[in-house]
Design goal:
alpha+beta; Thiol Ester Dehydrase, Chain A; nine-stranded antiparallel beta sheet; 5 helices; 35% strand
């Protein structure tokens, strides 16, 4: 007689290793990422932009999300460290590990550490914090909002950025970040959201691109700590504000008085 399989407890994943997996940095993939994030294609012809670390992260983070498919997963924080450039047409190994899990208020905070290396040594590191919770029940009332048209990006004005629902799919394809809350309305509602929301790492790419303009060359940044403050709906124009603080930059993605992403970014020497 069949039975019901209980959902995985996130704490069961502590010390689980994902990978190593091969990551090929192809010119076509970098071009897709640059188009999806609105970065400068003329600058990134030899190396990938710093935000492309999102694609390396999801070489193994996709496996973690599959393990957590019975839960709702939100991205809370992200740390990146770059040791050198991510060269186009290079090959690297990516390894991820669940380093810790802690519970607070019914939410599991899952820390996921990633190392990216090639034959000569480390290239970059990442540390993600995912907020994992049960999906909403059928009895839970979520105030849903109507989704904008697929290509409606909110018509951002000068100095603004925005993304459509189709743009979120293009970003997901460029990075393998297929968390359904970014493209499926019902999945977003099941996660307790009013509708589809933009990837935190897409907004992180906007912040990193703005910071990279402060340094020339193909390895402009040393590290970044990014916090995802509020969910950004598609077709919502935002600005990227920057405040200099020594060798660091304080960057915020915000719109209409709401801060969606904040970051402290260290420039390379």
């Amino acid at each position: 007689m069949g039975g019901t399989v209980s959902p995985l407890n996130p704490s069961d994943l502590i010390d689980q290793v994902f990978g190593p997996r091969l990551f090929r940095v192809c010119v076509e993939n970098v071009a897709d990422f640059v188009r999806a994030t609105g970065d400068d294609p003329e600058r990134w012809d030899i190396a990938a932009p710093p935000g492309f670390m999102a694609a390396a992260l999801f070489v193994v983070a996709s496996d973690l999300l599959r393990e957590l498919s019975d839960h709702s997963v939100l991205h809370g924080e992200q740390v990146f460290s770059w040791h050198r450039r991510i060269g186009i047409e290079s090959e690297m190994d990516v390894t991820g590990r669940v380093s810790r899990v802690r519970e607070r208020g019914g939410v599991e905070f899952v820390a996921f550490d990633v190392e990216v290396a090639d034959d000569t040594g480390p290239v970059a590191d990442a540390s993600s914090l995912f907020l994992v919770s049960p999906k909403t029940s059928a009895e839970t009332v979520v105030e849903e909002r109507a989704e904008p048209g697929p290509e409606d990006d909110g018509s951002p004005g000068p100095g603004q950025l925005g993304v459509s629902r189709a743009g979120l799919v293009r970003y997901a394809a460029a990075t393998r970040d297929w968390n359904p809350i970014h493209w499926d309305h019902q999945a977003a509602v099941a996660a307790g959201l009013p509708g589809v929301v933009a990837h935190g790492l897409l907004q992180s790419a906007w912040a990193l691109s703005a910071a990279a303009r402060f340094r020339e060359g193909d390895a402009p940044l040393r590290s970044a700590k990014v916090r995802f403050r509020n969910p950004l709906p598609p077709a919502k124009p935002v600005t990227v504000g920057i405040e200099e603080s020594g060798e660091s930059l304080i960057v915020a993605v915000e719109g209409d008085g709401v801060e969606y992403v904040s970051a402290r970014i260290e420039l390379s020497e």
